[in-house]
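Thread amino acids onto this structure.
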């Protein structure tokens, strides 16, 4: 959405900011509108046309920018509201309130604050994490505009690949388990071909040869079909049928192997990460940096108490601490990483790159987060 300057003369809060005066329920009754939409009498795009939708917003730099006169002048949430209002035909500038966040003096949580908001306004515009505890409080989530999943940002360096890895790079197109299954299939095929041709094909299996000799030669012919160096020379119709089936199977396997061989056989560098997972930090007591007062700090302290935690007040200072090796990684949200990676102030004086890793099962046990990558 392209950011637009708001008309500050019409973007003043319509309701008092002091929540002591918030006893009035400022929500609209949308039941009739919902019935009209479900019955097909009006389209979903016209459902809000001409209505004043009440919004609860919180003043925060870059999210909701506010002047001294309490007029909203811009910010991510305000810009989104402007675009939605233009598309759907509703108004929000005459029906919103600006309030502060949770009252720490009364131990109010963000969930408590959100429950209060949705019980007094149509929509709460805030950066919140969707979880089952909040859904149990009858909080509805219309949609997610930002990715607030947690990641670990750490340093990444390139090193020469080990010699053993370079020597066996030819095997990289297939996982080791595939090689095991393939060799087992070749052994079985060798035994089957020997049983079919033994006594009929004296060229491949001379009469005076032992069982081990004939089976070894049969395995050689079987493996040769994979490399293209040779193959079977059957003398029986069953042998010819088996040869057709096996050679076609080898054709498919060889095609799959060679398709990835060119890109994987050259191994020059390997990437080394400062940390790979939250489990590493727990097992080896590696120090992590977090932003003070965030959900990431709370989760680590509660569920991973053995991990040393270094608190910083801003994301740039967290990234600086990682570059200076004051901590092996920084835990933050993907959105924060997307915003700060590549920024000049976050990269000043840095000659190394950073990458983001998924902290396995960080926020919710049993939930894996995606691995993303980027550099600063």
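Threaded sequence (376 positions):
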């Amino acid at each position: 959405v392209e950011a637009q300057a708001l008309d500050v003369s019409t973007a003043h809060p319509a309701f008092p900011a002091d929540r002591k005066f918030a006893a009035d329920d400022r929500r609209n009754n949308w039941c009739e509108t919902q019935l009209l939409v479900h019955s097909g009498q009006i389209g979903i795009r016209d459902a809000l046309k001409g209505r004043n939708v009440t919004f609860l917003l919180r003043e925060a730099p870059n999210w909701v920018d506010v002047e001294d006169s309490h007029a909203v002048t811009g910010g991510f949430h305000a810009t989104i509201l402007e675009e939605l209002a233009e598309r759907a035909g509703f108004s929000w500038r005459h029906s919103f309130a600006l309030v502060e966040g949770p009252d720490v003096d009364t131990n109010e949580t963000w969930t408590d604050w959100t429950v209060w908001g949705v019980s007094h306004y149509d929509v709460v515009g805030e950066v919140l994490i969707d979880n089952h505890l909040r859904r149990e409080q009858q909080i509805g989530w219309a949609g997610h505009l930002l990715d607030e999943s947690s990641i670990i940002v750490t340093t990444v360096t390139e090193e020469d690949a080990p010699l053993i890895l370079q020597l066996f790079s030819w095997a990289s197109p297939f996982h080791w388990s595939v090689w095991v299954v393939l060799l087992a299939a070749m052994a079985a095929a060798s035994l089957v071909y020997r049983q079919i041709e033994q006594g009929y094909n004296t060229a491949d299996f001379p009469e005076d040869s032992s069982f081990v000799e004939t089976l070894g030669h049969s395995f050689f012919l079987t493996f040769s079909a994979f490399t293209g160096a040779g193959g079977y020379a059957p003398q029986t119709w069953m042998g010819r049928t088996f040869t057709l089936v096996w050679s076609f199977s080898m054709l498919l396997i060889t095609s799959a192997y060679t398709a990835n061989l060119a890109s994987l056989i050259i191994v020059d560098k390997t990437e080394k990460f400062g940390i790979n997972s939250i489990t590493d930090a727990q097992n080896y007591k590696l120090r992590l940096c977090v932003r003070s007062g965030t959900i990431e700090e709370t989760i680590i302290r509660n569920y991973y108490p053995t991990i040393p935690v270094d608190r910083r007040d801003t994301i740039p200072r967290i990234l600086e601490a990682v570059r200076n090796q004051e901590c092996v990684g920084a835990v933050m949200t993907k959105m924060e990483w997307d915003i700060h990676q590549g920024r000049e102030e976050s990269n000043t004086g840095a000659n190394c790159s950073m990458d983001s890793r998924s902290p396995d099962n960080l926020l919710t046990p049993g939930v894996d987060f995606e691995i993303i990558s980027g550099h600063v």
